[in-house]
Specification:
alpha+beta; GTP Cyclohydrolase I, domain 2; 4-stranded antiparallel β-sheet; 4 strands; about 30% strand
Length: about 130
């Protein structure tokens, strides 16, 4: 499917990481979420009921970042994918999550560290 609803640059703070200081100090994260949705009906009808309410998806994604601790970005990205898919409802057939830790605790100048994953509805239902 080539139709996408894009949520780009969502920022929230969370307490995630393996290092001791990452377990106690909130840090900024940024996420892009791309929802695979057939947009033809909404394009024709101009009715919110025929698409995905991206506001509710954004709230669900933000809640995951602000929510319980995850050691790995990979784990947090999986949680975000599942939350986005659930908040988007049955119209969402796939999701791509690009998650970035904006101030990673490394001894070199690094703008961000991140992961990107793609999941299909069937993938998330099997877990």
């Amino acid at each position: 499917m080539s139709d996408l609803i894009q949520l780009r640059g969502l920022r929230a703070t969370g307490v995630h990481g393996v290092l001791p200081e990452e377990r106690t100090r909130a840090q900024p994260f940024e996420v892009d979420v791309y929802l695979e949705v057939d947009l033809r009906t909404a394009g024709a009808s101009d009715d919110l009921a025929d698409t995905v309410d991206y506001g509710s998806v954004a709230e669900a994604v933000s809640a995951e970042i602000s929510g319980p601790h995850a050691d790995l970005l990979e784990h947090l990205a999986e949680r975000i994918a599942r939350a986005a898919m659930q908040a988007g409802g049955s119209r969402v057939q796939g999701v791509t999550v690009s998650l970035h830790k904006l101030r990673p605790p490394v001894p070199v100048h690094l703008h961000s560290a991140g992961v990107r994953l793609q999941r299909r509805r069937a993938d998330l239902l099997q877990q």
